[in-house]
Structure formats: structure tokens, C-alpha cells
UniProtKB/TrEMBL annotation, chain A:
It comes from Alteribacillus persepolensis. Pfam families: DUF2487 (PF10673). This is Uncharacterized protein. InterPro entries: DUF2487 (IPR019615). It comes from the Bacteria.
UniProtKB/TrEMBL annotation, chain B:
It comes from the Bacteria. Belongs to the Rieske iron-sulfur protein family. Gene3D superfamilies: Rieske [2Fe-2S] iron-sulphur domain. Its cofactor is [2Fe-2S] cluster. PANTHER family: CYTOCHROME B-C1 COMPLEX SUBUNIT RIESKE, MITOCHONDRIAL. The keyword Oxidoreductase applies. This is Menaquinol:cytochrome c reductase iron-sulfur subunit. SUPFAM superfamilies: ISP domain. InterPro entries: Rieske_2Fe-2S (IPR017941), Rieske_2Fe-2S_sf (IPR036922), Rieske_Fe-S_prot (IPR014349), Rieske_Fe-S_prot_C (IPR005805), TAT_signal (IPR006311).
Amino acid sequence: MKWITNDIASFIQERKYIDTALVPLLPVTFGSGVRQSAAMNEFISIISDELERQFKGRMLLVPPFTYLETEDIHQRKERLLEWAAEMKKEGTAHIIYITADSEWKKAEQSLGDLLVWMPLVPLENMDMEYKRQVVSEQIKQLIPLIMEKWKMDT
Amino acid sequence: MVSEKDHNVSRRQFLTYTLTGVGGFMAAGMILPMARFAIDPVLQAGAAGDMTAVADVSDLTEQPQRFDFSYEQKDAWYTSEVTETAWIYQEGDEIVALSPTCTHLGCTVNWDANEDYPDQFFCPCHGGRFEKDGKNIEGTPPTEPLHKYEVEVQDGTVYLGKAEPQI
């Protein structure tokens, strides 16, 4: 389900089935890394949209968690855990974080949920057909990972 | 002076002819656009329509295979490229194209994806299952069969239209 009124209506209705939140983690900078930041945004949006399409009936794609690249890793982790606590309180059983920012690997242990780190693929130079192939190949690798998480948590 | 009777076309006849001619053109000018409007849907259907080329017939097997295709969709203020998937198989002369959207809550189902349930469509979200022809298996969450695409074959290419419910 997407974060749009149409989907949220079915989310409210079928809440017991939609027990997973997908949270994209996106760094923002206005300095020299701005190109990289944009590329991550583009890539992670495409991947999370595709994942949402695959797992529409069990996954809610929430608005991305954004942070300044300069923000300290501990501080942003604390903020993220606040999001997680709120979602868990409202009955979300599983949370999946998806990012291209390798900084998060340092905090992976203390997040307690599934962190999917994907190395950034420069999609901007690919033609449509090739882009689709690359993305669908990545998605294929992610599906068992997510199903495994569901199995483990129950 | 020459009498009127010697003319090939009398004054009265000439006037009748011209008036009929001009009147005819005016009537045609009014009626033709109306007729065009009336039969417009018929002319539209004759065109290629909203079918999308998806696969070659020679690529099809008896096992359902996954084919992705995309088309442009205009939604309010932006045009976006929509990607859709179809599971297509051929049985005898019949080509069947099923939508991968689980009829429970809309996840994407996969063919033969779970070892416990070979030769079935399996939904990874809540374990919904479907037979090869899309029929939902009782005891699993979905309540209706997978939707079926409209199929058309032209010159060895499979074109798909809209996915429609089977019941």
C-alpha cells in the first residue's frame, strides 16, 4: 500500500493483514554530495516502489525518513527508533528499512529490524529496457530476504 | 426572338437544378458530421485500440511464463510509464494471459514459487494460491480467480488488452 488516500482506506480496513512497514532512508545534502544524494533518492524510490508493487497486500510504504548527511549517526538512529516505536505501538509487526547510504551499516545491530542496504546503481545512464532488467533482478534477490524475515518473526 | 421552347434547358428547369444542387450540398454539410458522430464508436474500434504487444507466440510454452510490458498512462496532471506483468501460457490453440495481482489484497503472485505447492500460483504475502487457470484454491485468503487479460494474436505477436475478472 502506498501513502495515498486511496490505499490508506484499504489499509485501515485490512489492517490485520498489512503488518509490515517499508521505510526508505534518504540522506540529504546541499554541498558537493548533492548529485549522489539525488541519485540515491531516485534509486531507492524505484526499488521501494517495486517492492511495494510486489508486496502490496502486506506492506505499507511510508514517507521516506530523511536526514542531513552531516547529522551524527547516533542522533539519526535515535530519531529513527522513535519512528519505529510509534509504528510498533500502532500494531506494525515488521519494519523494513531500505537505503543506499552505507553509514547505516554501523547502526544495523541496534536497529533491531531488517536493514536492507543496496549499493547505489547509476540508473541514469541506462536505457529503459536495461534499467527494468536491473531493477527486476534486484527485486528478485530481495523477495526471499523479506519472506525470511516474516518467517523468522513469527 | 427565340421562344422559350427552343432552349434545351428552360429557365424554370435551370433554377430547379441549381437550387436542388445547392440545397443538397447544404443538407449534406449538415447531415454528414452528424452521421460521423453517430457511427464514431464503430470507426474507433477498427483502429489498433488499447492493446499492447507483449510477447511472440513462438516464445510461449505450456508452463506460464512471466512477461513484463509497459505503456503510458495519463493521470490528472502527469504522464507516467506504467509497468504491468502477465503470466502467459499456451494450451493447444488457446493462449491464456493471467494478471499477477492477487485477488486478496493485491500482492504479485508467482508461478511455481513455493516448493510445497508445485504448479500453482503462490502469493508470498498471505499464502494465497491459484490453479494454473487462475482459479483460487479454497482455504486460502483469495475469494475470486486471478483476472484474465484480453488476448489478441496478430502476425505471431501476442497483444494484451485490459485484465477482466473471470467471474
